[in-house]
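Entry
Fold in token form

___
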Amino acid sequence: MAENGEAQQQPQVQMNILGQFIRDMSFENVMAQKGTGGEVQPDVSVQVNLDAKKRSAENQYEVVTKLTVESKNKEAGNVLFVLELEYVGVFNIVGVPEDQLHPFLLIECPRMTFPFLRRIVSDVTRDGGFPPLNLDNIDFVAIYRNELARRQSEAAAAAPTQ
């Protein structure tokens, strides 16, 4: 009977954001540098990469969201601007089982910092001379699953065949 009680006493998950900051950022207004202007139809592409690592303090993790945003003119194909941003969240996480920690770090943590990241992208593009770019929500679950599938296919390709 005690075993049932213990099984139900799973530790409660706690996540606290201890800090967040821009580690690296670059914004290049290519259109202004080339002296071009006028009406353009922008085509914006956004690439997202995620990384997480354990910090030296107990239960602390650093999660990095790397964004590359490139806007091109739809008609001419020339680049209007490029924004590269590494945004870091430092988290204290307690109660997540070890086998669930990796997806938790790469899904839930970026989800918590995303509104701040979105605001930075909007402000930087506006301050860079363009209409503010308001990023759509990012599906971090899909990004995680795609990365797992990519790693599995790489492992399968690297495995020797008999």
